[in-house]
Design brief:
The chain is α/β, with parallel strands linked by helices. The chain is about 40% helix and about 15% strand. It binds phosphoric acid mono(formamide)ester (CP).
């Protein structure tokens, strides 16, 4: 086994193509493990991991915890809402107090972009970014790319469109970095107000017409509108957004080829996709969630090998 080129997982930007391939090959092995009757291996038996979440999460938090348990690590879970952060404790003090209880690795979600990078400079433990504000969500991008590889055989040469709130999406940014490293062609699609002004620097195609984008792609990753990160109105109403950028069964069935539908969750049914699309045989949304556990097992296992 060759080692990853990084001690922390802060962003896809820091991974090499070889790192990503190594993570995928390790994921293949762990996927076989979690489909066995005995789903557990002793790989991280002497490791303690703290899951520190300063923002809400369903999929990522449970997926990391399950990955840790499948690897036999000891885990502790911290939710900021029920912690002493509300009494004024700083991020570094909070994490250093947790680390003093002999914790080896920290998985952190935080609303501020750069929080994980900042923490990595100030504490003596390995950090895995579980989503930092509008910046990156590396394990989501890895599980998304892995799911495309699983469905289509390879990511190279595939046409992927990411639709919706690109401006506020850490999933979009991490996906762009990951898919491009793996040789995919990437397009973003959404209203002008939800496409970042610096998009040209990312070397992606930009399309404002949903039908044209869907006719071009092999895979459509439909993002949620992140109302909680929007301090001003970026479009007149959710109904109008849905009419222009929502995907329903009629549009899906009118396309010239059978495309794959992805969504990182949580879904707002009836806004970015209808229930019929989310639950259709073209959707791999639940396969993404399933693959998330094996991807996170691979990331934690490979990072722990770095020490
Ligand atoms: N995809 C994702 O990050 O979902 P959660 O917010 O539920 O973790």
């Amino acid at each position: 086994m060759s080692k990853l080129s990084t001690r922390h997982l802060i962003g896809i930007k820091d991974l090499t193509v070889e790192d990503i391939q190594q993570i995928f090959e390790t994921t293949d092995n762990f996927k076989a493990v979690i489909n066995r009757p005995i789903k557990k291996v002793p790989s991280l038996r002497d490791i303690t991991i703290a899951n520190i979440f300063f923002e809400n999460s369903t999929r990522t938090r449970i997926s990391f915890e399950l990955a840790e348990k499948r690897l036999s690590a000891d885990t502790i879970n911290f939710a900021s809402s029920s912690s002493s952060v509300s009494k004024g404790e700083t991020l570094i003090d909070t994490v250093n107090n947790i680390l003093s209880m002999k914790v080896d690795m920290v998985v952190m979600r935080h609303p501020s972009p750069g929080a994980c990078k900042f923490l990595a400079k100030h504490i003596n433990a390995q950090i895995v970014n579980a989503g930092d504000g509008t910046h990156e969500h590396p394990t989501q991008a890895l599980l998304d790319a892995y799911s495309i590889r699983e469905k289509h055989g390879d990511v190279r040469g595939k046409k992927i469109v990411i639709v919706g709130d690109i401006l506020h999406s850490r999933v979009a940014l991490s996906n762009i970095f990951c898919l491009q490293k793996l040789g995919a062609k990437v397009m973003v699609c959404g209203p002008t107000t939800l496409i970042p002004k610096h998009i040209n620097e990312l070397d992606v195609l930009v399309e404002h017409n949903l039908r044209k984008a869907l006719e071009w792609c092999d895979v459509a990753n439909m993002l949620r509108i992140q109302l909680e990160r929007q301090d001003i109105k970026y479009f007149p109403s959710l109904r109008e957004y849905s009419m222009l950028y929502g995907l329903d069964r009629a549009m899906l069935h009118s396309l010239p080829k059978k495309i794959t539908i992805m969504h990182p969750g949580p879904i707002n049914r009836g806004v970015e996709i209808t229930s019929e699309v989310a639950d259709s045989d073209q959707s791999i949304i639940l396969q993404q969630v399933e693959n998330g556990v094996a991807i996170r097992m691979a990331v934690l296992y490979l990072l722990a090998a770095q020490g």
